[in-house]
Specification:
The complex is a heterodimer of chains A (377) and B (708).
Chain A: E1 3-7, E2 16-19, E3 25-28, E4 37-38, E5 41-42, H1 47-54, E6 64-69, H2 81-84, E7 103-110, H3 123-137, E8 149-153, E9 155-156, E10 159-160, E11 166-167, E12 172-173, E13 175-176, E14 179-180, E15 184-190, H4 193-202, E16 211-218, E17 221-229, H5 235-244, E18 255-257, H6 259-262, H7 278-284, E19 293-296, H8 311-320, E20 327-329, E21 344-349, E22 352-355, H9 364-367
Parallel strand pairs in A: 3-6, 6-7, 7-8, 8-11, 17-18, 18-19, 19-20
Antiparallel strand pairs in A: 1-2, 1-21, 2-3, 4-5, 9-10, 12-15, 13-14, 15-16, 16-17, 21-22
Helix pairs in contact in A: 5-7
Chain B: H1 10-20, E1 25-32, E2 38-44, E3 61-67, E4 76-79, E5 100-102, H2 109-112, H3 118-133, E6 153-156, E7 166-173, E8 176-182, E9 190-196, E10 200-201, H4 226-237, E11 245-255, E12 264-275, H5 276-284, H6 286-289, H7 291-299, E13 303-309, E14 330-336, H8 340-352, E15 355-361, H9 385-392, E16 400-404, H10 413-420, E17 425-428, H11 433-441, E18 450-456, E19 462-467, H12 476-489, H13 519-537, E20 543-549, E21 556-560, E22 566-571, E23 574-579, H14 580-592, E24 599-607, E25 612-618, E26 626-628, E27 631-633, H15 639-649, E28 655-662, H16 672-687, E29 692-698, E30 701-707
Parallel strand pairs in B: 6-8, 6-13, 9-11, 10-11, 14-15, 14-17, 15-16, 17-18, 23-25, 28-29
Antiparallel strand pairs in B: 1-2, 2-3, 3-4, 4-5, 7-8, 7-9, 11-12, 12-13, 18-19, 19-20, 20-21, 22-23, 24-25, 24-28, 26-27, 29-30
The chains are: A alpha/beta (377), B alpha/beta (708).
């Protein structure tokens, strides 16, 4: 029995696939480039093709994901949604026009998605969320149905959302799309009410990022691996999480995806790179052991002025890790012979987590890329 | 120490180059020894090791790969780390514990060497570490590993009906022995001690015990320790004068970790190199005076352990086939391989009186479990098959049989002459690709008689029969290639490899010795093959047949597979055979694309020992290819999946070989771009220890360039 986490190399963006041994799947955020090539050379990993390989198909041969989580409506978390995920009345899926579009069983979004000023690439996610929400709002007996499940994570001003489609921090979720995960539970840490209001006022969508801890079980052994995914949550959010968290076990981690693509904002304000706030130290202090790992889903981290990714943040993560070797960057971890970064793939089994490199046979790299030009010319 | 680019052995050079082009492998040093063997030390990093590995393997491990000048065995691989755990699954028994010798492939090297690939070999090593770290190198549905490693097999000849206290132990040859209970003191060699162990959890970690202390952790069924059990039997049964050494027969029931009952019972025999009277004496005195010294003495007693095979209790009855008329009458047939299928075909040939002289060669020994399917009776257990078969059929009127108990590759020149000269048919039933290739191609066998090869699929319900034509234009190796091509394109053969598809060990041939041969199936298929073969001999044409038995109904059906003509090319000291089906594929593509260049990938096999490449399949251009009137860039969409599919269907026999493209309305002469493509791609593939083939089709036909 083994589960899989695939953190796709999408530059300064997020796109993560979780696939359980029983076939259930979750996608956190989307970053699918329409064009993988630059100047005739492929530069991006083909996320869509890989997703189509990994995701199951339903009885109508449509690929689907059980749970799609949009952590917040920024372009680097939403690009490619429109052309690659199906949105709209599920009965109107056209097998030709919508071929290879991925059906979504259950959709999680944050409150900020419903604001007007969101990234263009998030608009279809909003449209889909509204469509699903209207099914609930128009029928008080509606509790969700296939391809129509919705959860809004957060608060509707001061109130909680209708409990048929709302989740708030502190909630432990062990099912989606009408079925139990069986081997996974998700603890929701954020967004908080206060942060949502502040975010609305300041138009800070990062502050309403969905933050979760995933707890994987294997063959009856609980918590074989715990991961923290946090979108672009910055240091204030982490402090609120710590303030509201009753049990450190909900925050301990084996894998931590560095928020905001290894930005310094996890440690402090961007203009203060000298001090590390206690929130960051505390979260880093909750790494489970010397095998805990931090993954930066970002472009290559160079010693320059960029932020994200931030070189100083990388150094700080390494310093705070029990084993400083356990910092990895999606842009550089595994680059194939065509210079295309490959996903960081974790396999979670009874012996814990391990990273799996794509094994290649002789000639595979040659046959998998275009051949040099031949011909009379 | 030598520089990597100064290595001399071709095998070592290939491994060194393959290591250089792989990520996460670092060459540490290269060494040449005085016996001309060469050692390459490598560091493997980014191994896929979990947080809590089943065995303490690290994410970075150093290995040494030893290549010998003779190059007759797979290069040995050793894990070098001082603390590397010993006794892991698939480690080789050695007289020393470190460095740990890793068994990275269970395929015979003679079969693998023709298409041995250094790049993939390094992949096997990585896989060994990865899979062992999660306890999955030994697949869960494979039989359990033996509890103890042994270098000797011993069979019991009888059951102890008379309650004898002694045994007669007889070594037949190194690694092979027999044991019989006896009450006759004059023929007894050992004092016998029976032990039954308590049910033990199988570890998949076999050790080769050499002293008693390595056995004492086993608990006996009656709760006693092993020493106590031996002591009590010796003390109560042996006389104080009994100078015979001890021989223990240990029955060891085992179960897998999650099983609720015994999964199997293994039997071991170990000889204790101490006489019974000695144990008796020390038991009575030293054990009481100085128990610690007694235990220490016992711990250090040397033992020799063997795997004990139960006495054959199945009597196998042969059915006699009645004869057909119109059967060929040949002077001599030579059969290589006298296993299950070979012996049954031989039985058919002998009883039908097909040939006057029969020559057989096989080095194998008849084991008790073979008796269920082999023609030889139980009395021949632990004896060589070839000479036993000769004895078995002696007395059949007019039948002369020559037998040689040797491995085909170890035959001397005289032996080859005895076996093969004047043969009118050479029948290969060895299950070895290497033997078949040698029979097809090696010039030292000075006979131009037809060859045939017959083998079963791993599931034991399908059989392939290959027979050359009279003129040997369709040689065995070329017919083998036609069969492999059909494996990947013919839907009727989709189930050929079904029974082993789920296995992930490094199997390499689709004619592996069938591990689940049904008795009825082998008889039926052997009869069908001998009938088909003898019918084929009466004709001049080549044959390529696959017989299949329906698993449910037992109904048999034949699939006659198409046979190619082959065009032969030479380039850079390599011989390239291109199937006529491949040429047709390319011609059709050329005809459909008269205005634009088109192309695709070539797939096939190669034989490094003989510098031969076989091109079996030309894949069409992927949809992202860029075609223009004077150029073609082969795309990559779906190619990795296609290569994987072809590899799976042919069980890794068929690999990517190179590229083809067309010159519409022009000759096939390579342009400057074509030459550049050849150089670049050969360089890439050579680094991965592969050949490269380039094909260009124009108005004047097919041009081939290749380097192996």
């Amino acid at each position: 029995m083994e589960h899989k986490i695939k953190i796709y190399p999408v530059g300064n963006a997020d796109c993560i696939l979780v696939k359980l041994s029983n076939g259930k799947t979750i996608i956190f955020d989307c970053q699918i480039h329409a064009d993988l090539y630059e100047n005739g050379k492929q530069i991006w990993f083909d996320v869509k093709t890989d997703l189509l390989k990994e995701l199951p198909k339903d009885s109508l041969n449509r690929p689907y994901v059980d749970l799609y989580v949009n952590t917040h409506p920024h372009d680097d978390h939403c690009r490619g949604f429109e052309g690659n995920f199906y949105h709209g009345d599920p009965d109107k899926y056209d097998k030709d026009k919508d071929k290879d579009k991925i059906m979504i069983g259950e959709l999680w979004v944050t409150t900020m998605l419903f604001k007007n000023d969101i990234a263009e690439s998030a608009e279809e996610i909003r449209r889909e969320a509204k469509r699903r929400r209207s099914l609930y709002d128009n029928d008080e007996d509606f509790t969700g149905s296939k391809w129509n499940y919705l959860r809004i994570i957060g608060y509707d001003k001061d109130n909680e959302y209708d409990n048929r489609y709302g989740y708030i921090p502190g909630k432990v979720v062990d099912r989606a799309n009408g079925r139990s995960f069986e081997w996974l539970s998700i603890f929701i840490h954020a967004p908080f009410k206060k942060d949502i209001e502040t975010a609305k006022r300041d138009d800070d969508k990062n502050a309403t990022s969905i933050v979760v801890q995933l707890r994987f079980s294997v063959e009856g052994k609980d918590n074989v691996c715990r991961t923290l995914f946090a979108g672009d949550a910055e240091h204030e959010i982490w402090q609120h999480i710590l303030d509201n968290n009753a049990d450190d076990e909900n925050l301990r981690w084996n894998i931590f995806v560095a928020p905001h693509h290894c930005s310094w904002t996890f440690f402090n304000e961007s203009n203060n790179k000298k001090d590390v706030l206690p929130s960051a130290s505390n979260i880093m202090g909750l790494q489970i052991d010397g095998k805990s790992e931090v993954v930066a889903s970002s472009k290559e981290i160079l010693n320059d002025q960029d932020n994200p990714p931030c070189y100083e943040a990388k150094q700080k993560y390494k310093e705070k890790l029990i084993n400083s070797q356990n910092f990895f960057n999606t842009a550089t971890f595994d680059v194939n012979s065509s210079d295309i970064p490959q996903p960081i793939t974790y396999i979670i089994g009874i012996t814990g987590k391990r990273k799996e490199l794509e094994s290649t046979k002789a000639a595979e790299s040659v046959v998998s890329r275009p051949a040099p030009r031949a011909g009379l010319k | 120490m030598v520089r990597g680019d100064a290595l001399l052995l071709p095998r070592a050079i290939a491994i060194y180059k393959a290591a250089l082009c792989q990520n996460y492998i670092e060459v540490l040093e290269c060494v040449r020894r005085s016996d001309c063997s060469e050692i390459i030390k490598l560091r493997f990093s980014r191994l896929s090791i979990p947080d809590e590995p089943v065995f303490p393997i690290l994410e970075t491990e150093d290995v040494a790969i030893v290549c010998t000048k003779e190059d007759l065995q797979l290069p040995e691989v050793y894990a070098l780390r001082k603390g590397f755990p010993s006794g892991l699954p698939h480690t080789n028994a050695r007289p020393y514990i470190h460095p740990v010798s890793m068994c990275v492939s269970d395929v015979s090297f003679s079969d693998m060497r023709l298409q041995f690939n250094a790049y993939d070999f390094l992949g096997y090593i990585r896989r060994w570490f990865n899979k062992n770290s999660i306890g999955e190198l030994h697949e869960s549905d494979r039989p359990m590993e033996v509890y103890f490693q042994t270098q000797e097999f011993c069979t019991l000849l009888n059951e102890n009906e008379d309650k004898a206290s002694c045994v007669k132990y007889e070594q037949i040859f190194a690694g092979c022995s027999r044991l019989g209970f006896t009450n006759k003191r004059s023929e007894a060699t050992h004092f016998y001690v029976p032990l039954i162990a308590d049910v033990t959890i199988a570890q998949n970690m076999a050790i080769l015990p050499t002293v008693m202390s390595e056995l004492k952790t086993l608990k006996m069924k009656d709760g006693k320790s092993m020493y106590e059990s031996i002591d009590s039997i010796v003390a109560n049964t042996a006389s104080r004068d009994n100078s015979l050494p001890i021989l223990v027969i240990l029955s060891l029931p085992e179960k897998k970790k999650l099983s609720t009952s015994t999964d199997r019972t293994e039997m071991f025999m170990f000889r204790i190199h101490v006489p019974a009277c000695d144990i008796y004496k020390r038991y009575r005195t030293l054990r009481i005076e100085n128990p610690d010294a007694y235990t220490e003495w016992y711990d250090n007693i040397k033992i020799s352990i063997a795997c004990l095979l139960p006495p054959p209790h199945l009597l196998w009855n042969r059915d006699c086939n009645n004869k057909n008329s119109n059967l060929p009458k040949l002077q001599k047939i030579t059969i290589v391989g006298t296993g299950t299928l070979g012996s049954n075909i031989m039985d058919s040939i002998v009883r039908k009186g097909i040939c006057k002289n029969l020559a057989i060669v096989d080095s194998d020994v008849l084991l008790p479990h073979n008796v269920a399917r082999h023609v030889l009776p139980p009395k021949d257990v632990m004896l060589r098959k070839a000479s036993s078969l000769k004895r078995h059929y002696s007395g059949i009127c007019g039948q002369k049989i020559i037998s040689i108990d040797k491995n085909y590759f170890e035959l001397g020149l005289n032996e080859k002459i005895i076996l093969f000269s004047e043969a009118e048919l050479i029948l290969d039933v060895s299950t070895s690709v290497a033997v078949e290739r040698s029979l097809a191609l090696d010039p030292f066998i000075e006979t131009n008689c037809r060859r045939s090869s017959v083998f079963l699929n791993p599931g034991g319900n399908q059989m392939v029969l290959i027979l050359e034509d009279k003129n040997r234009t369709c040689r065995l190796d070329l017919l083998e290639m036609d069969f492999l091509r059909q494996l990947i394109i013919n839907k009727d053969l989709d189930e050929y490899l079904d029974d082993i598809r789920h296995l992930t060990s490094n199997q390499f041939t689709c004619r592996s010795e069938s591990f689940v041969i049904d008795y009825d199936n082998v008889k039926i298929l052997a009869s069908l093959s001998s009938k088909d073969l003898l019918r084929g001999i009466n004709n001049d044409a080549a044959l390529l047949h696959v017989w299949a038995i329906d698993k449910e109904t037992g109904e048999s059906r034949i699939n006659s597979l198409p046979i190619s003509n082959w065009q032969v090319f030479s380039a850079n000291a390599a011989t390239i055979y291109v199937s006529s089906f491949v040429q047709n594929e390319i011609e059709q593509a050329y005809s459909k694309n008269k205005d634009y260049e088109t192309g695709g990938c070539l797939f096939g096999c190669y034989d490094k020992d003989r510098n031969i490449i076989y091109v079996l399949y030309a894949a069409d251009s992927p949809e992202d290819s860029i075609k223009s009137p004077a150029s073609f860039i082969r795309g990559s969409k779906g190619m990795k999946e296609l290569a994987q599919k072809i590899s799976n269907k042919s069980y890794s026999q068929i690999v990517y070989l190179g590229e083809w493209h067309t010159h519409p309305n022009m000759t096939n002469s390579p342009s400057a771009d074509d030459k550049k493509q050849f150089d670049v791609m050969y360089g890439q593939l050579h680094a991965e220890d592969l050949p490269f083939v380039q094909g260009i089709y124009g108005v004047n036909g097919l041009y081939i360039n290749a380097k192996i």
